[in-house]
Amino acid sequence: MLEQQRENGNATIYQYQLIRKFHIPRLLLLLYLFFPIPALLVGTLWFSWHALVYMLAALLLVLWIHFVVSHSVLLIRGPIYRKKWRLRFSGMWFGFLPDQHTGYSILQQVLQQTLWIGFVFIGIIIAWVPLPFTLALLFWHFWFMAPRLSVLLSMRGQRKDVMIKLNPQDVSYYIQ
């Protein structure tokens, strides 16, 4: 098929062949999106209304940590990778994530660095911040990383030279 496209002049270097597509069930998406509400209610009941402020501040701080770590890893890898990433707020994908097809190795490296550096940062500041704020930081870190880690876990046993596209309703794996 690719040879036919080349002969017709329709082929580009961006032709990818779909290997697998994982659909995100609508129920799972809704559960994921509404999960912060019960966490906020529990925090308010256990600690007081200050949990609302802590949750909001922790949300912004975790987004900033993820952005700085991801952006730094991409800067180290080269400017070509950074151009494909942006802040996204669609479906399950919140934060600084690839907007286009991206290589599995790049995605894996960025996600692993973000995961561990986020934990290290929270571990360092745990002595200076109140317990509700620490719990809010951990909650948002896990909440943001859960869909990203599910992508990495779903790749177990798959080829490592694939391109990944994060769509609001699915995750697609392509080979070049």
From TrEMBL:
Q: Which UniProt keywords apply?
A: Membrane, Transmembrane, Transmembrane helix
What organism is recorded for this protein?
Saccharibacillus kuerlensis
- Protein name, entry field: Transposase
* Residues passing through the membrane, by range: 27-47, 53-76, 114-131
**Source taxon at top rank:** Bacteria
